[in-house]
Amino acid sequence: NRAPDEFIIVGFERAVYPEQIDIYETYNPGAVIRVSARNGRDNTDWETVWETEAPHVEAQSRIFSLPCRNLSCGEINQIRLDVNCSAVGNWCEIDCIKLIGYISHNDISYKELATNLKQLLLDDSLADVTFQLDNGQTISSHRNILSNRCIYFAELFDEYPSNIQEPIKIKNTSYDAFYQILYFIYTDTLEPVVNYETCLELMRKADEYYLSPMYKEAFNILKKTINKTNVLKLYTQSGLFSTSSNDNQQDDIILTDVVDLCVEFIRKNRQDVYSSDQMQQLTKDMLLRLIQLVQ
């Protein structure tokens, strides 16, 4: 029989302002009854992050995540887990305790600012400018933010002063891409899930909007999402082959990074890609060029 009042204390080399604690419970999860934290360097008192009256048992291993942004102790570098295995009459296994946080208040403030700006983009109650895309959809935004954070919009608003009430028309840009452009201007990042067509469009629009970091963000998403299903679509839309209408020649801008990404992926997955149905849809020129590149 195990004692009901066991505990473990783990220390971390660097103290951080905590945001979250992850406990990797791999066997008999549910035995943790209290999680506490403190700054061991300053020998502060333990502060309770979370607790429950009684242990329980869960059938599957889990990552037990606890938010801890509002601890009064500030920085922490020690975590204490109080464990009670009486619910299982056996033992539990915890393989890892992860402390997620920031090394300075500046990091926290920046993240909070980005979150607030994201909410501002979603809430158009104080918006003072409206954009209209080719498909008729509109997006509202805020002139001060856009003009101060993006040269493109500063110049655009010189042509469309605030006394003009009509929506400003945005040509040759999809709704999804334009929303991500605004999202990037507000938050310095893109949403974590963006489809590959929008990523390609953002990479091509980066220079037009003077947002070169957006190119890198979009490309990083592509690198994470490329797979056997979309690699040939990326290849055909990389700009190597003319697919655009006269109204949107920007689609023909060759994205060399995308070409190289596709070639590298196909080399590693040659058999699966070559045997896919999409290979049959390539034109002769596309097929010959692909073979030359992959060799």
TrEMBL record:
Pfam families named in the record: BTB (PF00651)
Ranges of residues in domain BTB: 127-191
InterPro entries: BTB/POZ_dom, SKP1/BTB/POZ_sf
Protein known as: BTB domain-containing protein
